[in-house]
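Z., the sequence and structure:
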Amino acid sequence: MRTLKLATRASRLALAQAGLVQSALEALGQTVELVEVTTRGDRDRKSPLVSIGGQGLFVREVERCLLDGTADLAVHSGKDLPYELAEGLLIAGVPKAASPCDMLVARQDIPLRTVGTGSPRRVLECRQLLPDAAFREIRGNVDTRLRKLRDGDYDAVVLAEAGLQRLGVDLSDLDVRVLSPDECLPAPCQGILAVECREDDGELIALLEQITDPMTRARFDAERKLFCLLQADCSVPLGVHCAVSDNTYTLSALFGDRKAVRTGTDIDLLCEEIRQELTS
């Protein structure tokens, strides 16, 4: 049995996420070694993501490890995936998702005048919840953002609940509000881990199917399909969320300042209807 080499970004959250996949594979009797990769998005922690190009910033260097044989598989945050994967690669594993929601994390007992987020989507959605707040760019990993919050650089920050859960972050000294998808539509595939490998590695593809959660896979495929259809520039607010129940999809989307919701059983039809409504 070969030792599987798993490529991941080197941030604490990315390593925690990779560790979840590593543990799932080791439970099947595999031996897994992590290969840490520093991506362009990790090297530049000051520039706004919009200014340096959001697509693939945290993915392309990791994919190169698969293409050159340095690694056999890679773990990505589903929301970081670009519209197109590198040629010859596919998403073969989709473990059970964590929460798709955003969280508003604030210092206690103060007015929320300054909120840190670099996401046009979060600014648009949260401005409706906090009309008197000013929204300012913030970069850095979860620990850095929370440090800046506690240091008083911001009154609140907006973070993905999934990342905070996976890191087990202690937020007892802060005020926390989970924002439901109705309040703040998440980024496409937020809270979902995507495990990538080479298309010609049939043995590994079959193995990754064993750690895939069918309901999460259905949600991932639906949200990613609409994401790819909309082809939003990284400066355009874009949110997508799909609730799956009994082979019925409720698909919600934000594109710019427009929203659309559709329910049905044919995801291709739902995605096309939403695309036409939001882009016409």
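The mean pLDDT is 93. The first strand starts at residue 3 and ends at 9.

Let me know what you think.
H.
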